[in-house]
Structure formats: structure tokens, C-alpha cells
Amino acid sequence: MNHLSLCQRMYIRSRRPFRIILMRHAESEGNVDKCVYSSTPDHALKITERGKRQATLAGRELQKLIGDESVYFIVSPYTRTRMTYKIVKEGLEQRQHFAMKEDPRLRELDFGNFQDLETMQETMEKTRSAYGRFWFRFMNGESCSDVYDRATAFWESVFRSMDHSPGTRFQNYVIITHGLMMRLILMRYFQWKVEFFERVWNPSNCETWIMERDERGSYRLLLL
């Protein structure tokens, strides 16, 4: 897009969604019982009954926010995010322009297959903190810096889709993902330093962080 004039770039950006809404999944089995990670794959964990209520409320709040505006969901393919999406969607009124797709890049940080609770607690409390939360890589898994690269690739494809898609221009993008990924998505867009990222903690289950487009076509964070 470097060959485009400033006016052309601003026009393209002005057609981007008015809001990008980041939402963390509802409370999952792993949020209430860490032992399940030793016997159930992380991607297969379901949401709890409390999580279902959280997602129902989140759907109602989303409906209040966007009204009858068009909406495009992008969802992590984990079971808990899929379940959250399904319940949130039920809280929305029917609308003409609605779409959804899954994107594996929105998945949770890979902690390394099945996890022993005692070993994981020691790793989280001692080794990871000493090494640096952003840089530490779990055995057979990922580091936050690895997930940052996924967030970078995600943003690139999202903006390509927004700017060059010949189809419907959606007024809202809703991204249902995981707490860490939400922080890294913001880190990438707002160019946070590592030290700032490490001072930001995960949102609560079904909490939303809202990015709103300004007159220049850039996004500002409303709630954090």
C-alpha cells in the first residue's frame, strides 16, 4: 500500500469496522480445576455452568452495544471459545449482515501437551518469573514471543480482508479468543514494549476490550 497517496490510505482506513471487540472466553473447566490439564487436552476443555451464564450476559451486552449493526466474528477453534461464541450469538437479534470464521492463530499459548500440575505450578511461579514472562518458552510448547508472531500474522490478514474484500463491509469485528492472546493482539497493534506487556494481566472471563476507529482510521482502546 506504500504506493498509495495519503488520501487514498485514509479513505481505505475509513472503511474499516467502527469497532474491533476483543472478548475472552467464558469460564472453563481449566479455570476452576487445574488438575484437568493432566488428563484433558487444553483445546478440548469446556465451559462451566457459570461460564454459560457469563456468555449469556456477554451476548446481551454485545447486543446493547452494536444494536442492529453488522458483525463479523473471528473465533479461536478451541472448544471453550466455540461454546462461548455459540451462546453469545444467541443473545444477538437477527440481522442482515452476519458472518463467522475460525482462525487457529487465535488459539491459546501452547503449554506443552498434557501438563503435570505440580511441575506446572513450579514452572509458573519460579522459573518463568525469573526468566521473564514474555521470553520463557514452555517445554514442548511456546513462549509469549512465539504467540506475538501469531498475533502479527493475524493482524496482517485481518487488515487485508478489511481493506481488499469485495464483499460486505462489517461495522463490527468481534474476536473471541484467550486472555493472553488478547494482550498480545493489543501489544502488536499499539506497539507496547515488553516491559509494559508484562505489567498487563489477563481480562476476566467474557470481559471485552473495545477498539474504536477514530477519524484518521486508526483504533484507540476504550476499555482496559
From TrEMBL:
Binding site for substrate: R24, H25, A26, E27, S28, E29, G30, N31, R80
Catalytic site positions: H25 (tele-phosphohistidine intermediate), E108 (proton donor/acceptor)
Regions annotated as coiled coil: none
Pfam families noted in UniProt: His_Phos_1
Database matches in InterPro entries: His_Pase_superF_clade-1, His_PPase_superfam, PGM-Related
Protein name per the record: Uncharacterized protein
Organism annotation: Ectocarpus siliculosus (Brown alga)
